[in-house]
Amino acid sequence: xxxxxxxxxxxxxxxxxxxxxxxxxxxxxxxxxxxxxxxxxxxxxxxxxxxxxxxxxxxxxxxxxxxxxxxxxxxxxxxxxxxxxxxxxxxxxxxxxxxxxxxxxxxxxxxxxxxxxxxxxxxxxxxxxxxxxxxxxxxxxxxxxxxxxxxxxxxxxxxxxxxxxxxxxxxxxxxxxxxxxxxxxxxxxxxxxxxxxxxxxxxxxxxxxxxxxxxxxxxxxxxxxxxxxxxxxxxxxxxxxxxxxxxxxxxxxxxxxxxxxxxxxxxxxxxxxxxxxxxxxxxxxxxxxxxxxxxxxxxxxxxxxxxxxxxxxxxxxxxxxxx
Amino acid sequence: xxxxxxxxxxxxxxxxxxxxxxxxxxxxxxxxxxxxxxxxxxxxxxxxxxxxxxxxxxxxxxxxxxxxxxxxxxxxxxxxxxxxxxxxxxxxxxxxxxxxxxxxxxxxxxxxxxxxxxxxxxxxxxxxxxxxxxxxxxxxxxxxxxxxxxxxxxxxxxxxxxxxxxxxxxxxxxxxxxxxxxxxxxxxxxxxxxxxxxxxxxxxxxxxxxxxxxxxxxxxxxxxxxxxxxxxxxxxxxxxxxxxxxxxxxxxxxxxxxxxxxxxxxxxxxxxxxxxxxxxxxxxxxxxxxxxxxxxxxxxxxxxxxxxxxxxxxxxxxxxxxxxxxxxxxxxxxxxxxxxxxxxxxxxxxxxxxxxxxxxxxxxxxxxxxxxxxxxxxxxxxxxxxxxxxxxxxxxxxxxxxxxxxxxxxxxxxxxxxxxxxxxxxxxxxxxxxxxxxxxxxxxxxxxxxxxxxxxxxxxxxxxxxxxxxxxxxxxxxxxxxxxxxxxxxxxxxxxxxxxxxxxxxxxxxxxxxxxxxxx
Lengths: 323, 520
Ligand code: FES
Known about the structure:
Number of strands of chain B: 9
Distance between the termini of chain A: 95 Å
Strand content of chain B: 5-15%
Oligomer: heterodimer
Largest sheet of chain A: 5 strands, antiparallel
Order of helices and strands of chain A: HEHHEHHEEEEHEEEEEEEEE
Radius of gyration of chain B: 29 Å
Helix content of chain A: 25-40%
Bound molecules: FE2/S2 (inorganic) cluster
Largest interface: A-B, 107 and 145 residues
Largest sheet of chain B: 2 strands, antiparallel
Distance between the termini of chain B: 56 Å
Number of helices of chain B: 17
Number of domains of chain A: 2
Shape of chain A: flat
Structural class of chain A: alpha+beta
Strand order of the largest sheet of chain A: 3-4-7-8-13
Strand content of chain A: 15-25%
């Protein structure tokens, strides 16, 4: 068989043909040679960059070279392809009719009729079966939610109200060292944790448990060298000028990590709540609604600073069950 | 030699006139009946307008996200178990870090090309969310959400919400100091919901913050499987609806409610859009290469008792952060219960309200205007002053809140007190949207009144007669300005690349139906 034999067998579908001079073609298509040359250049450059990426990867060059080469390569490749599409392919305007999506009124009625009439026979006449099935499916829907949700975790209970602080718990810094009378000079500040939450011998550095970091974290300030009372009723809470507040912002629980020494304000960097350490960390500015809870302190018989009692209220942001 | 040549030729001959392609089409058509629908698909017309690319940016950044995400998931370890870092980043050597953090630092320093892919992933996520917002703004202001496309508007909104959650969760996965702080804030926001908040958080976290270390593995599977799967489903529905309902188009030459005018799917649109995919990928690669993003090794592993100054969430969370900042500290505390309104209102109720309005908008507009018609032609924003004003006011509100999320930086920069900045924003957040809305409304009205706006001006030809008298006549109208009708016509099957000698459009001999002669 030869080529000429084959030609007639080609099923010729009557189809339109566009020439480069067709008005559907972009303007540049009238002089395709120039555009084509440009695109050739772009594609060649793209290939070079993509190959360079391969080389750069092979040689383990730095990431900005990898990104630069592949980025340039893909950019050129994409640009060339887009230019090809824009200038050398039929642009239109081609017109396509929109065929209405809606069916005829008869078809709609037939659909509605099928729904209504069939259900009239099968469902309405067997109300009992339908009701029972619906009840079963409904109950399944509800009980299926239990394991999905309830298995996820424990109910809160009182877990949101408690911290690791209790009577006699020694305050330690992040290295696990207890605080003595001379650890801070007046004006000094540090973060302390319950002794239980700092694991000293786990590695080259002490490790603080998640609990200690996230819930029990407390900021210790030495405000003077005399016993200090922040609010009436807290006369014994600040031995030797040491006062301690929960470090959890009462707004959204960010650690209140900044201390304005001159103004004696604890500042939360998240939304700029400011707490006055002198009068019991009452918020002076910002969205925090409540003072930081204060931890009552005492010196134990070893001369170490310890908690007199747990916090008298839940620490951190508010929630429904908090009273 | 000649034997093989003959068999090759005879094999080719047996395949029919269209060779192996024809054979494959035939085999497929026998089984699936694809030829007719396939041809219609190849001829599908895409209207051209630059703003129709915005959705494509979202689509393609999603493709980049999937590809880079697969790469990252091969190296990332979803665990908050504390380990001691020994890797090539010296400043962290010997320190306690979580496994999640260590694996992310390893991706950045020890996996070949890892840093690039990580940064591409993060940039692509920002581009993804951003382009969705801009795309939806286009849909909103041009009225493309109107009947019959309300469902696609809803799907788009769902995808935006998912994208925001996906971004937030992905941001949390490295377990670094800044994302950990963000997670802590997210926990407290969920906790603030009355009745269910504390249950919600202890269920999710496995206990009070930071829980039992379960949250990172849970977030991981949500981030790499659950949300992407839902997104993929919604995306398919989005595109499926788009094909079924066809594109909207702007008014213009020959464009009516009953047709679509533009360029065909194959090859023109395919070439352009594939090129665009490559360019979007290239953009993320270049950003990933040259613009550092989220250098977690500088922040360190998350330690709930540490915080870095100037904590900033990713941009799409900024408006919520701003709302939290300017909210007064109203907490309800009575009857043994607490409702932290200072959190619940700005961070739960407010975004809920915003998204509800967005979801309801097509129905609201239908109700207000009483317009229940099908719309395929787009509005010019100025022709719908009220809608445009409402949209502009909404964006003004979000931008003001976004700006309010950097009160501290602004106060520092302009050397004004934090208090003054706070009150400025509290007033601005109400005043600016109102002003912007009113001004937009007026502008739209004015623009409607101006004759021939949006059209290019027709030049005026000045004549000088022989006597030295001057007279003016307007030039011929531009082709785009005259009204014309276009008839549907088939997309050409073949393109002859030989330029014709006579230069004009002619009917080639071989063509059965011929090329349409158009003179403009
Ligand atoms: S978390 Fe402290 S001000 Fe918001």
